[in-house]
Amino acid sequence: MVSTQSTRIQTRGNCDIIDITGYVSDAVRDSGINAGTVTVFVAHSTCGVTTVEYEPGLVSDLKDLFNRVAPQDIPYAHDKRWGDGNGHSHARASLLGGSLVIPFTDGRLILGTWQQVILIDFDNQARSREIIFQMMGE
Ligand code: ZN
């Protein structure tokens, strides 16, 4: 059985890091599927998803990491082409990836105690983001 759901959230952009674990859990529960996998996917080119221990220190560390890996204040060919100033946002999103697969049993996500699912919005402005959850199982 396959069940596809989606939800929309507002972000502040600029490396906004949002705990979306509750949305994923709700989608799995609402699907009525007992065991399987859920794919979490963002259909956008300037945000991504991953897992982390969601606490202020790591939220800050992750922002620092992306500032070091793909700084905003260096030239990007994308900015020269479009002038939208978010070349760093696209580069960071491609590096992080736009999807994640999590297994579940008994209708519950199999996550570590200190492991939350997060969305990071790298765009250079606030955005409305659609998150897609596709549950496959029985
Ligand atoms: Zn762009």
Which short descriptors sum up this protein?
8 strands; elongated; 5-stranded antiparallel β-sheet; 4 helices; single chain; alpha+beta; 138 residues; binds zinc ion; 3-stranded antiparallel β-sheet
Short note summarizing the structure:
The protein is 30% helix and 38% strand.
Backbone CA Rg: 16 Å
Helix content range of the residues, please? Answer: 25-40%
Average pLDDT, rounded to a whole number, is 97
Overall 3D shape: elongated
> What's the β-strand tally?
8
Biggest sheet features: 5 strands, antiparallel
Structural class: alpha+beta
What assembly state would you assign to the polypeptide chains in this entry? single chain
Report the total helices: 4
Biggest sheet strand line-up? 1-8-3-5-6
What gap, in angstroms, lies between the N and C termini?
Answer: 6 Å
Strand-residue proportion: 35-45%
Which residues form runs of ≥5 with pLDDT under 50?
A: none
What string, H for helix and E for strand, traces the elements in order?
Answer: EEHEEHHHEEEE
> Cofactors and ligands present?
zinc ion
